[in-house]
């Protein structure tokens, strides 16, 4: 059965994470990066999980899982190697009508997490529908080479230019062609080459004065987050 792809806003939303091993630590790291509040339930924690458990936004329960732990959660993730525990977590989440992911067990999941490449605000998600996480990782590794850190700078420029142009109060119908002109221009090539003067020339050529990198409060070389393992 195909999954419905979505990108979730987890900022300040509660996620229940069951497990304290290295896999759970990676999940915890990704959830905190997304701004989620995390209820971490495990009687034991590996060093990586222990360190992250001290982060702001983590509610640590150093004990076994209880059905009531799902209360108030938007999502549930079970990252343990205990099949019976995973089943119990999945059942409790299902009963509470909360989406659940049991790591590496697609049949127990109501959502799965793709392999991800991040370059600033660019997010590329790869999924095999749970058929082969290894294949998804290989695809992700290939995409990392195709989409370099220049995409972080490129999208930051496009966002800032769009925000400033929109703030001028002109009709959207007038602005829309300019956005497409930027995307179809040599802007990416200039960014990739680290050509600040060239970027400014493209921006002012399309948008007019007041749209240089300095005007937008930006500079090239900001970089971007590397691709990640499935979270």
Give the helices and strands, then pairings.
Blueprint: E1 14-18, H1 22-33, E2 37-41, H2 47-53, E3 58-61, E4 75-78, H3 83-95, E5 99-102, E6 115-119, E7 122-126, H4 133-146, H5 150-167, H6 172-184, H7 187-192, H8 196-207, H9 213-216
Parallel strand pairs: 1-2, 1-4, 2-3, 4-5
Antiparallel strand pairs: 6-7
Characterize this entry briefly:
The protein is of the alpha/beta class. The chain is built from nine helices and seven strands. It has two domains: 14-113, Rossmann fold, CATH 3.40.50; 117-231, no CATH class.
- Can you summarize the main beta sheet? 5 strands, parallel
Question: Which structural class do you get from the secondary structure elements?
Answer: alpha/beta
Q: H/E element string?
A: EHEHEEHEEEHHHHHH
User: What is the oligomeric state here?
Assistant: single chain
Number of domains: 2
Q: Assign a percent range to the helix content.
A: 40-55%
Q: How large is the count of helical segments? A: 9
Report the portion of residues in β strands: 5-15%
Mean pLDDT: 93
What order do the strands of the largest sheet run in, or round the barrel if closed? 3-2-1-4-5
Name the poorly predicted regions.
Answer: 227-231
**Computed Rg:** 22 Å
Distance between the termini: 21 Å
The dominant shape is elongated
Number of strands: 7
Description:
This protein is α/β, with parallel strands linked by helices. It has two domains: 14-113, NAD(P)-binding Rossmann-like Domain (Rossmann fold, 3-Layer(aba) Sandwich); 117-231, no CATH class. 43% of the residues lie in helices and 14% in strands. The strands form two sheets. Strands 3-2-1-4-5 form a five-stranded parallel beta sheet, sandwiched between helices. Strand 4, helix 3 and strand 5 form a beta-alpha-beta unit.
